[in-house]
Amino acid sequence: MKQEKTLENLNLIREMVRQGGTPLFFMAVSHLFDCGISSFSVESYRNAVKAIEENHKQAEAEGKIRIMTLEYEKAVLDTAYRLSKLPLFDVLLYIKKHMEIGDPETADANEVANLEEDEDGCN
């Protein structure tokens, strides 16, 4: 029974990746690790969406262009929230089996820069 649930979760994750793409999936996983799975509640999800919306409004008012669209940032949060409801083991198993992760010994400056916390934080 547990093995069937794990396979069901892996298929659910596969569908998330298929719909949103690998970069979105990695950003969602990164958000989960940054913020902590257990602390990623409905309230923190709503607060993060609100912060993203406010940052986009402020950037628009100042004539700045954001790297990611509002919809994409919300999709990252949505995927992170959906992943937070799955067992961590299943998420890590999916990553191990289906994702290629770069070697930290050969990481370039761009990869390292992507690991830095963004301005929206985890609230």
Task: Explain this structure.
By secondary structure, this protein is mostly helical. It has one domain (2-114). The chain is 69% helix and 0% strand. It has helices at residues 2-20, 22-35, 42-61, 70-84, 88-98, 109-114. Helix 3 (42-61) runs antiparallel to helix 4. The protein is globular and about 55 Å long. The protein starts with a helix and ends in a 9-residue tail after the last helix. Residues 115-120 have low confidence and may be disordered.
Number of domains: 1
Q: How many H/I helices?
A: 6
Structural class assignment: mainly alpha
N-to-C span: 36 Å
Q: What helical percentage do the residues reach? A: 55-70%
Rg from Cα: 16 Å
SSE order, as H and E? HHHHHH
User: Describe the biggest sheet?
Assistant: none
The overall pLDDT average reads 82
The percentage of residues in β strands lies in under 5%
Shape: globular
Uncertain ranges: 115-120
How many extended strands?
A: 0
